[in-house]
Design goal:
Strand order of the largest sheet: 1-2-3-4-8-7-5-6
Low-confidence stretches: none
Number of domains: 1
Mean pLDDT: 89
Number of helices: 7
Helix content: 25-40%
Distance between the termini: 45 Å
Radius of gyration: 17 Å
Structural class: alpha+beta
Strand content: 25-35%
Shape: globular
Number of strands: 8
């Protein structure tokens, strides 16, 4: 057992998570339509911490996700939060920090969804998806303010599923509880936008 696995086991025991070393909850199948999991090869899910809330009708998993990036010839690793809830009903959407390549793409006609009243958000993030009107409905003022203040996150949503991560960042064990709380904050923001 390596140091990280042992630390995460201890965290799970102390904080009431279920812990498994691999993908025993079928995450690969649930994540197959997400952009993150469509990249590279040798995709693995390890060190899964899970909390189920039957009364609140959501299931959350925090896990280490890695894949081999053929372009860079390196393995990319990140900590991912996965949330499943029938309270979500999200459109297909992808939010990621905007890079210089995205800005160049806009000059070449690649479109993303911007919010005139929230120029800081639009400058920090690239937001794309299949149904712009529906996405705009879910990105309420509260959601836009949240991501403007909390920079650097990538978020993907499809139906009842949502994932949150910082690309290429494997969070230390002591940051997993804060990630869980962040996921719950975002869940509440998106749940309230579906009513």
């Amino acid at each position: 057992m390596d140091y990280r696995e042992n630390s995460l086991r201890n965290l799970a025991a102390a904080r009431g998570y279920q812990f498994t070393t691999g993908d025993e909850m079928g995450l690969h199948a649930k994540l197959r339509d997400f952009r993150l999991t469509a990249q590279g090869g040798s995709r693995t899910i390890t060190n899964v911490l899970r909390k189920q809330h039957g009364l609140l009708e959501h299931d959350v998993a925090l896990f280490d996700y890695s894949y081999y990036d053929y372009g860079t010839r390196h393995t990319s690793r990140q900590t991912v939060l996965f949330l499943e809830s029938q309270q979500l009903g999200l459109p297909v959407l992808r939010l990621q920090p905007e890079t210089i390549l995205h800005k160049l793409g806009e000059l070449l006609g690649m479109h993303d969804i911007d919010f005139v009243r929230f120029p800081k958000f639009s400058g920090q993030y690239r937001l794309t998806g299949d149904d712009e009107d529906y996405i705009r409905h879910h990105f309420t003022e509260d959601v836009l303010n949240y991501f403007t203040l909390n920079k650097g996150w990538s978020l993907e949503g499809i139906g009842y599923y949502l994932i949150l991560y910082k690309r290429g960042v494997l969070l230390p064990p002591e940051q997993l509880d804060p990630l869980y709380r962040r996921g719950m904050d975002i869940y509440r923001l998106f749940s309230s936008s579906t009513v």
